[in-house]
Amino acid sequence: MVPAKKSPDKSNHYGKDNTFGGYSTSLVVPEDFVLKIPSNLKPEVAAPILCAGVTTYSPLRHWGVKKGDKVGIIGFGGLGDIAAKLAITMGAQVVLFTSSEEKTTEAARLGAAVVLDEDLEEEETLRAHKASLDFMLSTIPEKTDLNPFIPLLKRNASLVVVGALEPLSSMNNMEIAGHRRSVGGSLIGSIAETQEVLDLCAEHNVGPAIQIIDMKDINDAYDKVENKEVRFRYVIDISSLKNSLAV
After folding, report:
1. Which residues belong to CATH 3.40.50.720 in the chain?
2. pTM given for the model
3. What is the dotted CATH code of the domain comprising 48-190?
4. DSSP of 3-72, one letter per residue?
5. What whole-number distance in Å separates Cα of residue 215 and Cα of residue 231?
6. pLDDT tens sequence across 70-109
7. Which co-factors does it depend on (predicted)?
């Protein structure tokens, strides 16, 4: 059961009633909200695409990312991983910005250039990337200062936030207005876009990096997410639910 209202733990859900479903073995939904999972896309890979996949695909599509564009991805977690893969699949050159030196090897393996956030304070790094990006996507799931990234956008380019749903730090509008840059936001995506990204991932054999866990391990997995130890999405094996209930 997922509470579909604002609960004491500050989680915010749509609607006024409780929503029963979530980990059910079956449920009934209107056909307009049913998606077709391509036969060559494994269920455990498809599951995160329904959330992280469309959340990052929708702004890439809406803001017209195309072959030859240079795209910056801020943050290299569950959203950043699939965002980089989708942008590369769409023909873009990707630059990943991360605070974790441990993730640089994994980012490079995707074919992306990597910049550590702390290096943006160095004049040489800033000069190398200044006004070079056609589009930027911030996937950081918390309030963060985006001002250091604004100068990296080309004229008329946009930085879109998908990770944080809270008030952000004030921005230097001189860096934005002076080059007609834009800062925007995006939240998940449409049913049509969700089907598109499923089909795209199936066609190009692209998917999020996942770790499959049993239901009994969910608390341990939650702690690892909090400690930024997950690489990059946990997927619960729903068949393990019966075993957990039997214990």
Report:
1. 48-190
2. 0.86
3. 3.40.50.720
4. --S--TT----SSSS-B--SS-S-----GGG--PPPTTS-HHHHHHIIIIIHHHHHHHHHTT--TT-EEE
5. 18
6. 999 999 999 999 999 999 999 999 999 988 888 888 888 8
7. Zn(2+)
